[in-house]
Backbone:
């Protein structure tokens, strides 16, 4: 392996910065052997990579391992994470795992780097301005209000499936200005087929080479991708003719992107091509739908487990709204609601880990990493660090008062990432989650069905593995 270890690999002081020299490079300590060698260890479970990350946390500030010839470093320290995302962001690109998503998302915002990414971000940014997203608030409340009218007292159901249904309706309305039509179901189904196969592809070193092979799995992949492209292209085409005919947009994100030009200084004043549009639309669909649904699902679980917090939430909702439906302008006054959602995304961050690839040799904290190293950091791990969050397993919304927040380093809590690639949909997500939660909780109290085992499924987003079974109790008044 060529590593000479300068300290024993023990838990030691979790937050000291032991280093391992390797020629002119300096890496954190970590697994002695190549990762596949550990396949019979309990922390090696391809279905649950959080186990590996939790195991690696014992090495302290950072840990190192190798997969075949690739160096991988897990960073656990907020300062080091800030260096990667902000101070030295130019030395990092998206990691190979995310680049592989190009198979699905082409050169969309998530997968692109450099100038392509900057241009995509410039063009999409106006669609997420405050005034623009404000227009979606009424639609979101309307959809949540319709859902709360359908619920039956004490009927048992899976709240995570229900939150997926709501988030799909919201994305259909705000991205495409439509109901959940068969086309939207089709997009969702094809994305799911592709995602399942994507996980299979991830396990192979040269997956791209297999794409055109006659393997049945690959045939299925190609068919799903073609169907997906056809449906989205069809929607783009009809919207483009509308926008051209009326020289105005319909208010949804798609119209906005269809009409947008890169008019910034340094921009080329060109509109997005059909292909670029498709990549961006699919990216927004994928990034904006499951994440919010998961944030809401985990929040119901935590409210079910913490009736005192739930009661306090109800007090706030009743005081602020006095029985009427919420609006965009109510959001700043729903302070406890925002603390509940923050604490929920601390314990169950929908985006549970992030990665980057080192583009040129770079120093991060005490480490000197070589080009090609993959760097990961996990919201799930860092946001459960007892230095910033004592009794980290406990649900305590009070951790998010302004004073408490000011006492922590910037990257102790980063559910939406940070730096130039911080989630572009963050304000949208906050608005959607807040308004949906408040509309539903105004009418209903949650009870968890006893005896169920709640497990996490950390795929691209952090999902509840077997759903969350609940009964909803109607609130008086
Ligand atoms: C609770 C909900 C959400 C969470 C936790 C979340 C989290 C994240 C995180 C952590 C990143 C950064 C990834 C990285 O730097 O590697 C990201 C990026 C992104 N998110 Fe979100 N997101 C959420 C909702 C949304 C919504 C609603 C949309 C769009 C409607 C959206 C669109 C995007 C896009 C396009 C990017 C890529 C930005 C770029 O690289 O420039 N997200 N999100």
Residues:
């Amino acid at each position: 392996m060529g590593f000479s270890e300068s300290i024993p690999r023990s838990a030691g002081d979790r937050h000291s910065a032991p280093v391992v020299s390797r020629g002119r490079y300096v890496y954190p300590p970590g697994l002695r052997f190549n990762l596949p060698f550990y396949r019979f260890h309990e922390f090696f479970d391809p279905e649950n990579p959080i186990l590996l990350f939790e195991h690696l946390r014992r090495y302290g500030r950072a840990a190192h391992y190798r997969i075949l010839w690739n160096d991988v470093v897990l960073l656990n320290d907020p300062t080091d994470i800030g260096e990667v995302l902000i101070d030295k962001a130019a030395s990092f690109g998206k990691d190979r795992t995310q680049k592989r998503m190009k198979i699905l998302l082409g050169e969309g915002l998530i997968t692109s780097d450099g100038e392509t990414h900057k241009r995509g971000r410039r063009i999409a940014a106006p669609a997420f301005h405050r005034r623009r997203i404000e227009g979606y608030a009424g639609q979101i409340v309307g959809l949540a209000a319709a859902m709360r009218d359908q619920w039956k007292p004490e009927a048992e159901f899976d709240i995570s499936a229900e939150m997926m249904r709501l988030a799909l309706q919201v994305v259909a309305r705000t991205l495409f200005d439509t109901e959940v039509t068969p086309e939207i179901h089709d997009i969702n189904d094809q994305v799911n087929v592709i995602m399942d196969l994507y996980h299979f592809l991830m396990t192979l070193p040269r997956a791209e080479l297999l794409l055109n092979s006659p393997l049945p799995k690959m045939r299925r992949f190609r068919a799903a991708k073609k169907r997906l492209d056809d449906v989205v292209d069809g929607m783009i085409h009809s919207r483009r003719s509308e926008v051209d005919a009326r020289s105005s947009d319909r208010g949804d994100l798609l119209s906005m992107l269809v009409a947008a030009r890169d008019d910034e200084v340094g921009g080329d004043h060109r509109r997005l091509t059909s292909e670029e549009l498709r990549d961006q639309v699919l990216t927004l669909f994928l990034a904006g739908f499951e994440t919010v649904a998961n944030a809401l699902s985990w929040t119901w679980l935590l409210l079910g487990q913490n009736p005192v917090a739930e009661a306090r939430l109800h007090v706030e909702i009743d005081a602020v709204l006095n029985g009427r439906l919420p609006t965009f302008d109510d959001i700043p006054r729903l302070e406890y609601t925002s603390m509940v959602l923050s604490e929920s995304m601390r314990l169950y961050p929908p985006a549970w880990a992030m990665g980057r690839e080192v583009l040129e040799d770079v120093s991060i904290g005490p480490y000197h990493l070589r080009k090609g190293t993959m760097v990961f950091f996990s919201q799930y791990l860092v946001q459960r660090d007892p230095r910033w969050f004592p009794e980290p397993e406990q649900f305590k919304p009070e951790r998010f008062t302004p004073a408490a927040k000011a006492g922590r380093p910037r990257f102790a809590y980063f559910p939406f990432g940070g730096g130039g690639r911080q989630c572009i949909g963050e304000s949208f997500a906050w608005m959607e989650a807040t308004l949906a939660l408040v509309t539903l909780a105004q009418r209903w109290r949650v009870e968890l069905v006893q005896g169920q085992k709640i497990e996490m499924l950390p795929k691209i987003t952090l999902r509840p593995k077997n759903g969350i079974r609940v009964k909803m109790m109607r609130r008086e008044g």
Notes: The first strand starts at residue 4 and ends at 5. Confidence is low (pLDDT under 50) at residues 1-14. Residues 71 and 156 are 47 Å apart (CA to CA). The longest helix spans residues 274-305.
